[in-house]
């Protein structure tokens, strides 16, 4: 008893000395001149690093923010803050505080943020914060607290107030409570009672010395993210969370957990089952997951047990998890799994088994997982997949990247009829058979980056649903065995062939002259960067079928020359990148079809000349990148689109002389933003005083006088116009007479046309040709019709469009009779074909019967007169329409299509009378 009294006396003496020391130091501080910096605008004071031993009391009374961190304060007393009743933020961190009186913060009724971290606090008074109902943030990490501080008053009393409504919850605004890096060694029921009705977002107990979590210890915590990482738990007792329906997320990582102890759900009322939604147990020491390990966690949706030492599972390990959707088992030591390992979790949609030691993947592991949609095996050392039918019919995403797969064939993915995405990135050495995806008719996305070798043998030819295909960064050259690789891949939107070591000749088949991209009518994005296309002149038809293409990337493809025809027909293109090549000259007509082009990247080439009409057909151009080239001047009257918003022409050897004066003046007038202005400089060939100066230092009015040639030219033009006007007026009657005669010679008489239009016929167009000439229909006629005559909906393409079940000649005559126009393709081979000539004769006879010029002849090549059949010569002698296709002349082709469009407008009545 005397020992106890002596201890009590010692404690009273210590407290008295402490209070006396505080009063003396507090009084002393009043008389000292503090060195705090004050900001009256924000009502704040910063007293950090001032060597203070107590809180200064002679600061403005209307302070809302006070910082006394990084000082030598040991105690906070009841009167420390009585002068600062407007405080909302208080930072007393990084001091040596070990003692705080009970009513220290009672005067701070508006306090929201309290920071006391990095001190020496071991005990906090029970009612320390019972008056601070606006607190939202309490930071107490890096102190010496031994338990959960009950600082909102008596727990039972607070709870009673909260329940009967007699008093508001004292922590209703609290969102974060940080007790990490303390010396908390145990948790008890009732520790969190005062927090039951708080609005906490996070409660942090990381880096404490907690060795166990008692039964139902968290039952009073509100909806919160509970952080208890890096403790010394050893065992995870599922019963610790009994009775709590509010905790949203619990993270218990790096806490030395070596086993999970399930709870006995048969003896526990169901209304006490935990309501937690997410549990993270990464970086522990788990070796196995026992049966029914987390039975009772009926609301759990996310479970992460990655970065452990799991080597085995039971097929009942996850039983009881009725709501589990996402399961992560990555970074473990799993080599094999029992059949139906995850069948118990009936709602499971995603499983991550990345970075394990799986050698052979067995589809039977996932039997019974009927809702499984995503399966990830990233870097799991897989070198083989058992050829057993998959029983996960809902699987849509399969990630097999960074493994050692050797081969994939038709039997590898049997059963995965709903598979939409598969990733084979970085598998060595992987071979994919031509029929590998025949069972996977729903595939929309295939990623095959960084493969050792791949040969295109038609694997994608009939993948009607494929939208995204990435075969980039092959270690050896992509081999293309034949044309028609994408014959029916009409849904593909994105194709990535970057760094596949292909060359220009690979883009067009040498024998059929067919583009590699034929069939890709929906392609939006084509990436071909880091390949070797030295000369595009050999393959002008490379992109001719891609009329829907939006983005084309040819970055770093070693391109030397741009052919004027290479980008024709790309009328939908919005982004074109040709940067980091070796282009010197770009033909004037290179971009003439790019009406929708918005971004053009030509930087980092060797371009020296910008043709005057280069951008005349790009009215939508917004961003033009020309930096890092060899451009010295831009000729006057060079057309620059008025739509241009961004221009970069830096790091070019610009010659700032009078020839460039117009461009310098243009820079001042337009609203275009010029980037890298400081790098846009005049070269040594400029006026001497402008050498290496920015182009904005060049003021043309200081260097260039009146242009005498321009004045003389304008004057001469005016005199010429006036002279011609006088002459025309004097000869006006003679000119009117000659104009009338010319009109008669050209216009002639009015033609009589058929009253019926294309819409009145069953077929708007009938195309007849030999099977050998079908390539021209696919590569030329179909793209034209879809791009420029989309209104023609009912078209017969050869014999494939004839009525089935009819006699051949009857079917041909029926199509001819019910077609608005009949087009026949003539070649040297077709005129020798008996059936083709029969079709021609039938078409001519129908034309004679109807007296309408309904036939159009198209010559695909020159045919010698001696070789031309009499019927064709007779038809041509009567001035019937015919067209001649020219392969290598772009202008001739444009004229060809214009004539064809005109011929499709009406059917003229035949007139064989020669006028007198």
TrEMBL record:
Topology term for the membrane: Single-pass type I membrane protein
Protein family according to the UniProt entry: Belongs to the immunoglobulin superfamily. AMIGO family. Belongs to the Toll-like receptor family.
Keywords, sorted A to Z: Cell adhesion, Glycoprotein, Immunoglobulin domain, Leucine-rich repeat, Membrane, Receptor, Repeat, Signal, Transmembrane, Transmembrane helix
Location in or out of the cell: Cell membrane
Gene3D superfamilies: Ribonuclease Inhibitor, Toll/interleukin-1 receptor homology (TIR) domain
Organism field: Strongylocentrotus purpuratus
An example Gene Ontology CC term for this record: plasma membrane
Primary location recorded for the protein, binned into one broad class: membrane
GO BP field: cell adhesion; signal transduction
Protein name per Swiss-Prot or TrEMBL: TIR domain-containing protein
Signal peptide annotation: 1-22
Cited PANTHER family: AMPHOTERIN-INDUCED PROTEIN, SURFACE ANTIGEN BSPA-LIKE
Stretches that traverse the bilayer: 708-729
Boundaries of every TIR domain copy: 761-904
């Amino acid at each position: 008893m005397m020992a106890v009294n002596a201890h009590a006396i010692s404690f009273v003496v210590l407290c008295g000395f402490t209070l006396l020391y505080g009063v003396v130091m507090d009084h002393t501080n009043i008389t000292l001149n503090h060195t705090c910096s004050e900001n009256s605008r924000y009502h704040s004071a910063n007293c950090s690093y001032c060597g203070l031993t107590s809180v200064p009391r002679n600061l403005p009374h209307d302070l809302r923010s006070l910082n006394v961190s990084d000082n030598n304060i040991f105690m906070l007393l009841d009167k420390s803050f009585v002068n600062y009743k407007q405080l909302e933020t208080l930072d007393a961190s990084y001091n040596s505080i070990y003692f705080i009186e009970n009513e220290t913060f009672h005067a701070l009724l508006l306090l929201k943020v309290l920071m006391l971290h990095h001190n020496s606090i071991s005990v906090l008074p029970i009612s320390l914060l019972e008056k601070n109902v606006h607190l939202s943030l309490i930071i107490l990490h890096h102190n010496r607290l031994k338990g959960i501080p009950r600082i909102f008053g008596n727990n039972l009393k607070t709870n009673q107030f909260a329940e009967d409504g007699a008093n508001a919850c004292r922590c209703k605004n609290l969102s974060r409570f940080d007790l990490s890096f303390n010396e908390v060694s145990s948790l008890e029921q009732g520790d969190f009672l005062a927090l039951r009705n708080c609005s906490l977002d996070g409660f942090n107990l990381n880096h404490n010395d907690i060795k166990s979590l008692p039964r139902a210890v968290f039952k009073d915590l509100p909806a919160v993210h509970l952080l208890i990482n890096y403790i010394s738990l050893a065992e995870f007792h599922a019963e610790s969370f009994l009775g709590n329906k509010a905790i949203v997320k619990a993270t218990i990582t790096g806490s030395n957990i070596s086993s999970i102890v399930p709870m006995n759900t048969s003896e526990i009322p169901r209304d006490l089952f935990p309501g937690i939604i997410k549990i993270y147990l990464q970086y522990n020491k788990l070796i196995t997951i026992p049966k029914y390990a987390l039975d009772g966690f009926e609301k759990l949706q996310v479970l992460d047990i990655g970065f452990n030492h799991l080597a085995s599972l039971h097929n009942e390990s996850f039983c009881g998890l009725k709501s589990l959707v996402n399961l992560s088992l990555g970074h473990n030591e799993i080599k094999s799994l029992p059949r139906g390992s995850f069948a118990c979790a009936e709602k499971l949609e995603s499983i991550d088994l990345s970075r394990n030691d799986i050698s052979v993947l067995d589809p039977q592991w996932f039997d019974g997982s009927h809702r499984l949609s995503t399966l990830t095996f990233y870097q799991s050392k897989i070198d083989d997949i058992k050829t057993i039918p998959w029983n996960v019919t809902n699987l849509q995403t399969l990630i097999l990247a960074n493994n050692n797969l050797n081969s994939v064939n038709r039997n590898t993915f049997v059963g995965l009829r709903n598979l939409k995405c598969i990733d084979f990135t970085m598998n060595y050495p992987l071979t994919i058979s031509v029929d590998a995806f025949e069972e996977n008719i729903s595939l929309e996305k295939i990623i095959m980056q960084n493969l050792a070798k791949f040969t295109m043998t038609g694997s994608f030819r009939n993948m009607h649903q494929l939208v995204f295909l990435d075969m980039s960064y092959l270690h050896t050259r992509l081999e293309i065995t034949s044309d028609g690789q994408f014959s029916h891949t009409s849904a593909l939107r994105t194709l990535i062939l970057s760094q596949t070591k292909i060359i220009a000749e690979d883009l067009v088949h040498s024998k059929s002259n067919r583009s590699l991209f034929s069939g890709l009518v929906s392609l939006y994005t084509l990436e071909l960067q880091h390949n070797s296309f030295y000369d595009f002149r050999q393959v002008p038809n490379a992109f001719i079928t891609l009329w829907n293409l939006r983005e084309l990337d040819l970055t770093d493809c070693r391109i030397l020359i741009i052919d004027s025809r290479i980008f024709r027909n790309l009328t939908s293109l919005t982004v074109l990148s040709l940067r980091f090549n070796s282009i010197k000259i770009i033909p004037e007509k290179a971009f003439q079809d790019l009406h929708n082009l918005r971004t053009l990247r030509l930087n980092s080439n060797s371009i020296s000349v910008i043709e005057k009409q280069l951008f005349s057909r790009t009215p939508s151009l917004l961003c033009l990148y020309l930096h890092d080239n060899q451009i010295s001047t831009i000729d006057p009257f060079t057309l620059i689109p008025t739509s241009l918003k961004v221009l970069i022409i830096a790091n070019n050897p610009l010659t700032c002389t009078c020839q460039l004066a117009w461009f310098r003046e243009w820079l001042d007038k337009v609203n275009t933003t010029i980037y890298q202005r400081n790098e846009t400089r005049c070269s040594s060939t400029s006026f001497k005083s402008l050498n290496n100066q920015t182009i904005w230092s060049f003021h043309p009015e200081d260097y260039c006088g009146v242009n005498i040639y321009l004045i003389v030219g304008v004057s001469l033009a005016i005199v010429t116009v006036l002279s011609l006007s006088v002459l025309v007026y004097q000869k006006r009657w003679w000119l009117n007479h000659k104009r009338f005669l010319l009109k008669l010679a050209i216009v002639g008489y009015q033609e009589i046309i058929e009253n019926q239009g294309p819409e009145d016929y069953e077929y708007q167009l009938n195309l007849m040709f030999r099977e050998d000439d079908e390539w021209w229909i696919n590569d030329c006629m179909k793209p034209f019709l879809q791009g420029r005559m989309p209104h023609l909906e009912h078209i017969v393409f050869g014999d494939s469009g004839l009525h089935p079940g009819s006699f051949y000649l009857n079917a041909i005559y029926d199509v001819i009779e019910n077609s608005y126009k009949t087009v026949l393709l003539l070649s040297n081979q077709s005129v020798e074909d008996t059936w083709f000539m029969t079709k021609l004769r039938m078409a001519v006879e129908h034309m004679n019967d109807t007296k309408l010029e309904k036939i159009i002849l198209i010559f695909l090549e020159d045919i010698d007169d001696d070789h031309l059949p009499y019927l064709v010569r007779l038809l041509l002698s009567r001035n019937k329409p015919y067209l001649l296709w020219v392969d290598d002349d772009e202008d001739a082709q444009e004229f060809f299509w214009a004539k064809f469009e005109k011929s499709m407008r009406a059917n003229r009545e035949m007139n064989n009378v020669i006028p007198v």
